[in-house]
Amino acid sequence: MKQKLIDLYTQTFSTPPTAVEQIAAGGSSRVYYRLHSDEGPTVIGTIGKEESENIAFMTLACKFRAAGHNAPRIYNHDESYLCYLQEDLGDVSLFSLLDSDNIRQYVADTMRSLARLQTTEDIDFDVCYPEAEFSRRLVNWDLNYFKYCFLKPVVAEFNEHQLQDDFDRLADRIMSTPRQLWGFMYRDCQSRNVIIKDEQPYWIDFQGGRRGPLLYDVASFLWQAKARFTDDFRQAMIDVYLDELASVRDIDKCEAKALTDDFVLFRTLQVLGAYGFRGLMQHKAHFMQSIPFALDNLASLISQGKLDLYPTLKSLCIYLCDNRRFKNSDTEGLNIKVFSFSYKKGYPEDISGNGGGFMFDCRAMHNPGRYAEYKSSTGLDKNVIDFLESKGEVQEFLKSAWAMTEPAVERYLKRGFTSLQIGFGCTGGQHRSVYCAQATAMHLSSMFPEATVRLCHREQGIDMTMKGGEVI
Fold this sequence. Notes:
Elements: H1 2-13, E1 19-23, E2 31-36, E3 43-47, H2 51-66, E4 74-77, E5 83-87, H3 103-118, H4 136-154, H5 160-175, E6 182-185, E7 194-197, E8 200-203, E9 210-213, H6 215-222, H7 231-248, H8 253-281, H9 285-303, H10 311-322, E10 335-342, E11 358-361, H11 382-391, H12 393-415, E12 419-426, H13 432-447, E13 452-457, E14 462-467, E15 470-471
Parallel strand pairs: 10-12, 10-13, 11-12
Antiparallel strand pairs: 1-2, 2-3, 3-5, 4-5, 6-9, 7-8, 13-14, 14-15
Helix pairs in contact: 3-7, 4-5, 4-8, 6-8, 8-9, 9-10, 12-13
């Protein structure tokens, strides 16, 4: 397929590209290349598996450009519509500028541009992929995405009938949005999909758009998990957006602003579903790292009373926000996670998405669990500690383990890495592994006070965080 892009470039610009470089595509299944030439323009070559999705993007891009909006120019495509060439807008996404001094102006300009883009006249929504219009079925799919891909993997049991009542209530409110607040719904409206070129926002990756409620995009953009805008900033930008929208549509701005809360909740749940699928199930680091930020947004909504209409959903969301599984994931500096576990129950999950780190097998050591007097004790109890230390094996074992982990921690700190996982496993996750994990967590926390150490004795249900050798 890469060769097809080269051939398409040569056909389009009457000169072959002199360089072809693949570009990181994030969570997308599409493959992107930047094609350079001494005699032709630098363009982005795209390979997409879905013909209909590619046609949707190219058709919408041409429509938006014809209407005067900032969208990439489409130069050409192959006969199968699986490869196409588009304008290279550069690499400066709005997301990369979130800490810049001009961020307020960039976001305000983006909000105005969004209102104009959404109200483009005469869009052929039949070309949209995979659906022409947002519907109650899609609302239900997104809510179930949250339930099955995030909620159920975290919460073992809950009343599904009562939760469905809350889902139905939320869906009713979403679908009752006045039609004057419907138009082109971008669907994945976020700062990563805005390129800043010549100090102006340009839109990319809108192939999933369709006719739908406009406020969904406002919620998606301003409550993007990793953007971390303040509530005051969000409210100011909503005002900017609604002022622009009111200039082209006859809307009630007060009514529109009041409706935003339900879309923020809905989008936050949908995002958590995506993070659950991509992170918890597929173990992709980028999505795992975003979960705490999305939960921060959810906690803020709860504190502002935005979930009071949905009592069962609210109680479950409170549980999710308080779940220690996702705590400390966004702590600045290095986070070391030390586990004890039973091999019979599988390896501990890598919640950072970084690949697991060190795993040490304690089963070769003499097992106190074979003796009746130790069966009710753990590696935290004095009788088990005395047993293990009197044999002399555990000291040599830990000496070897620490000889490997200490240099890694030191190097991770110097390189600015944020996550390292260390696991100790034994037969039952009760004696040997618990002793080793406890000793290692205390040792590393004392030796590297700048790091945060989270200790989890998985089979014992014990979870704690240490800093400088002290439990915090």
